[in-house]
Amino acid sequence: MIPSAFEYVAPASLAEATAFLAAHPDDAKLLAGGHSLVPLMKLRLAAPKYLVDLARVPGLKGIREANGALEIGALTTHYEVESSSLVRERLPVLAETAALIGDVQVRNRGTIGGSLAHADPAADYPAPILALEAEISVTGSKGQRTIKATDFFVDLLTTALKPDEVITQVRIPIPAAGSGAAYVKFPHPASRYAIVGVAALVRLNADGSCASAAIGVTGAGSKAVRASAAEQGLVGSRLDDAAIQKAGAAAAEAIEPVGDIHASAEYRRHLVREFTMRALRAAAERAKK
Ligand SMILES: Cc1cc2nc3c(=O)[nH]c(=O)nc-3n(C[C@H](O)[C@H](O)[C@H](O)COP(=O)(O)OP(=O)(O)OC[C@H]3O[C@@H](n4cnc5c(N)ncnc54)[C@H](O)[C@@H]3O)c2cc1C
Q: pTM for the full model?
């Protein structure tokens, strides 16, 4: 359990970090909380020549409200998201998601930027990040850009990030009045990673019918996805039991589940159906308040 030898680099600015990454596109890895990368290095599934620690780069931490959204710095830890009064008040589903990640040690070190960049198919954040239509701000050696959550997760452990790009912040719109959101998961009993996790966001019209719905599913396949067919079927419905059961079935049918030692593909499909229904019921209850 000892990683290959590497050189430790600690840039003092974002420009320094991105320049180093651009000069070593195949050999350098960013280090944030280290709770995904370091285990991989210990198993020698990753062997970067340079470890580029983001800890001294200013401006990558913190949570603020701006222009109808919360902006969360990439180095903000899961614990900081979980315990932030701003997140709890404006985006409670995100604080609840953060609180379900791993254990106290993991939440104290792991960061939102590191979790998204790692794109573990069983990570929790991708589900609400997709459902809430977040945008991921990144800076590379040639400038900045913003990536929509729906374009960010490409495949297993693969994102739209270029080798010289650093996630700087995640911008998550605060849902409109009349909305409710919830995240529920079936956790692995030891690691707490999501065997399947589902986030749902619904907005109700004044007459109680569903104006819009967004569903993010993690854990089931090689990457987190939106359950678009299920979402479309809900719009205009009363979000009653029949509509919610139909949405659960549509989400389960559309998913491409993987089977592994933790759960068969068929069991994951079953969990997607069940947890989509649970997330929708909880989100609908909150939207009514
Ligand atoms: C025992 C255990 C249990 C866990 N349980 C869960 C769980 O239940 N749910 C869950 O979601 N996660 C879980 N995790 C993972 C945890 O949430 C990690 O903290 C997270 O996935 C990675 O964040 P990090 O800051 O530690 O990133 P690191 O490990 O430092 O980096 C991960 C990857 O992201 C890249 N990276 C880091 N920051 C940036 C950035 N700003 N820009 C671009 N690239 C970047 C790194 O180069 C690396 O490739 C668990 C981890 C452990 C060890």
A: 0.97
